[in-house]
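During the no-cost extension, the postdoctoral fellow (Dr. R.K.) reprocessed legacy sequence entries with the updated structure-token encoder. One reprocessed record is reproduced below for audit purposes.
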Amino acid sequence: MESLFMSNTGGAGNSDQSARRGGGGAGKQESRVLDPKRLQNVAIMLKALNVTSDDVIRALMHGSGDLGSEFYETLAKMAPTKEEELKLKDYSGDISKLDPAERFLKDVLDVPFAFKRVEALLYRANFDTEVNYLKNSFGTLEAACADLRSSKLFLKLLDAVLKTGNRMNDGTNRGEARAFKLDTLLKLADIKSTDGKTTVLHFVVQEIIRSEGFSSDQTTAVNPGSTSKEQFKKDGLKVVAGLSSELSNVKRAATLEMDTLIGSVSRLESDLEKVKLVMLMKETCPDQGSSEKFFEAMDAFLGRSRVEIESVKASGESALQRVKETTEYFHGDATKEEPHPLRIFMVVSDFLSTLDRVCRDVSRTPERVMMGSGKAFRISAGASLPPRRYEQRREPSSSDEDSSSS
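Re-encoded structure tokens follow.
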């Protein structure tokens, strides 16, 4: 700006500029310890904190109170390099000639291993948030596993898909399948019937809607009219559309990354070791009396954090084991082929999104008599349904046969 604009101003302006650069300003330039760009960054962060060096020193000496993770994170970013720290500590000139940001750092560095304390306090400030997130995430995985295995509607839908596929493949070597992989669910909306409009998933959904609607009001189903048919449809649609909410934990689990969660636990544990190293510095602290409160506060935190981390590790191991068991429940030996430990949730979550869309389509379709057999679906060799992967854990009852093929 000076080279482009200031040189064109009048003489008075140039005199003012020279005056500002002279005298005390020249002294400050000569006494500068930090690199100008680095100094500017520290000054900006210091202004954002809006605290004095006394405030920071008090926090580092006492180790009590919660000033928030952002406070300590900003302080940590100000940490000088080893070279800068030596320059600031060795500076013996006029303190008033230092830049305010340099004076701030020099004052803070009077506290023994000041920025090691900042790192320890930052870890403590973030600890509860990270632990709660990990516990909630592992809890979500456990709940998702339980929901998948206990949802009667989901199992009924799988049973209907299996029976529909067997009816469609009647007379072929796939016509008596007892299993299919859950990935097959994602293909149901792509296989269309001879009318070119109805998909396998539309057919399965309408059959389940009819079954659920009939179950919700069997008394009026004795002599159903058009009104009761529409009511059956609404009742059944409400049940089927509710599967997405029933499996909400599955959708949340699909957004998680097991590697990331395990990595977070490991980092939490390894960073705790750094806090322990800070505690060991107590023996070499030149002024142990004034730092006693800091060590007492951090020692109490260490005792609690060890227990919490062990609890989180146990939760993670339990959740991972439950996920493996659930994947084996649905995929059997194919579990070993899974490229992603939480893929089962991703597949079901994608399927639920498709199911919601199909339910909306069905709700807009006038009630009509559906074909009673899946034979009307045209199946290509590449899209045959189902492959022999998913193993049902129960034998379909005769009543189920009737409801899914009626």
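The longest helix spans residues 288-331. The two ends are 82 Å apart (CA to CA). The remaining legacy entries will be reprocessed before the final report is submitted.
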